[in-house]
Amino acid sequence: MSPLLTVAAETENPLVPPIPELVIGLIAFVIVFGFLAWKLLPNINKVLEERREAIEGGIEKAEAAQTEAQSVLEQYKAQLAEARHEAARLRQEAQEQGAVLIAEMRAEGQRQREEIIAAGHAQIEADRKAAASALRQDVGSLATELAGKLVGESLEDHARQSRVIDRFLDGLDEAASKAEATR
Fold first, then answer.
1. Longest dimension (CA), the chain
2. Tens-place pLDDT, residues 123-138
3. How many other C-beta atoms are found inside a 10 Å radius of the C-beta of residue 59?
4. What is each CA distance from 11 to 15, 21, 41, 74, in whole angstroms?
5. How far apart, in whole angstroms, are the C-alpha atoms of residue 159 and residue 144?
6. What is residue 14's DSSP assignment?
7. In angstroms, rounded to a whole number, what is the distance separating the alpha carbons of residues 136 and 132?
C-alpha cells in the first residue's frame, strides 16, 4: 500500500463522528423529541385547532352575515318597490281627486254663471218694465197735454186721462207687434 493510504486510514474522517458520540447524540435527540412530542405537540395542536376553528367560525360568520345582508337587501328592495307602488297609487288618487275637483269647480262656475245670467235677465226685465212704466207715464202726460192743446179742451180728469193713455199705448204696442211679426 502506498504511504498515503496508510496515513489516511490511520486518521479519522472528520465527517463521520465517533460511535459513542453518535449513540449519545441519538439518545439525547430521542429524549428531546419525545419531550417535545409529549409536552409541546398537544399545545401546538391545540393552538392550531383553535386557529382552524376561529377561521372556520369567521368564515361561517361571514357567510351568515352575507346571507343576512342579502335578506335585508331583498327586504329593502321589496319595501322600496312597495313604497314606489304606494307613491304611484297616491299620485293617481291625487290626479283623480284633482280631476273631480276641477269638474266640480267647473260645474259650480257654470251654475254661478247661469245664476248671474238669470239675475241679469231678471234685472234687465225689471229695468225694462220700470222704464216702460216711466215712459208710459211720461208719454201719457205729454199725449194728454198735446191732445188738450189740439182739442182745445182740458183733459185734466185723471180717470179719463188714464183711459186715453192706455188706449194710445195699447195701439202703439199692437203696431209694434204687427211690425215685428211682418219681419
1. 203
2. 998 888 888 788 777 7
3. 10
4. 12, 17, 43, 85
5. 12
6. T
7. 6
CB atoms within 10 A of CB 164: 16
Give the list of residues 6+ apart from residue 148 with CB closer than 8 angstroms, or none: 154, 155, 156
How far CA 132 is from CA of 27, 69, 104, 140, 142, in Å, comes to: 151, 91, 41, 11, 15
Q: Do residues 168 and 143 lie in contact, with contact meaning Cβ atoms separated by under 8 Å?
A: yes
Q: Would you state the cell numbers that stand for residue 12, as one nine-digit string?
A: 479519522
pLDDT in tens, 20-59: 999 999 999 999 999 988 988 898 899 999 999 888 888 8
- Joined grid coordinates for residue 18: 465517533
Question: In one letter, which amino acid is 8?
Answer: A
- Whether 164 and 143 have beta carbons less than 8 Å apart is answered as yes
Q: Work out the number of other CB atoms within 10 angstroms of the CB of residue 145.
A: 14
Tens-place pLDDT, residues 125-178: 888 888 878 877 777 777 777 777 776 666 566 666 677 777 777 887 888 888
φ, ψ of residue 155 in degrees (nearest 5): -110, 55
- Cα 96 to Cα 105, 129, 178: the distances in Å are 14, 49, 57
